[in-house]
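Extended Data, panel c. Modelled sequence:
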Amino acid sequence: MLRLTRRYPFAASHRLHSDQLSAEENARLFGKCNNPFGHGHNYVVEVSVSGVAEEASGMLTRREDLDDFVHKKVLTRLDHANLNTDIPELENVVPTTENLTLLIQSWLAGAWSEFAGGNLQLNRVRIEETGRNSFEVKG
């Protein structure tokens, strides 16, 4: 089984804040990420696919096809977005990178048959928020 991973940068802003918590609890839990005006990140999302290479081409898939799929399903929605206000699925959720990782995985998995048919599997989605923080979900 082979795995191909492609990396895609995008920029987005968010504010980490929960209406279920007091101002003091939000400040303690989220620190400077609770800034009322929000803050931004230059994220990198990695999408990994796995499967068996096609005999004729020796490739899992055309990289351009994966790029087009990820651009259509993920990047057009997220690049330069305010995660708190521009993404309906995050409207009532704290837009942590953990939640963002799960959302991207669900978008890709939900449309996977459009891209891969039966020969490839969505193996992993990983987001690098900063040089020190990354989150990933398998499958």
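Helices lie at 23-30, 63-78, 97-110, 112-116. This feature is highlighted in the accompanying rendering.
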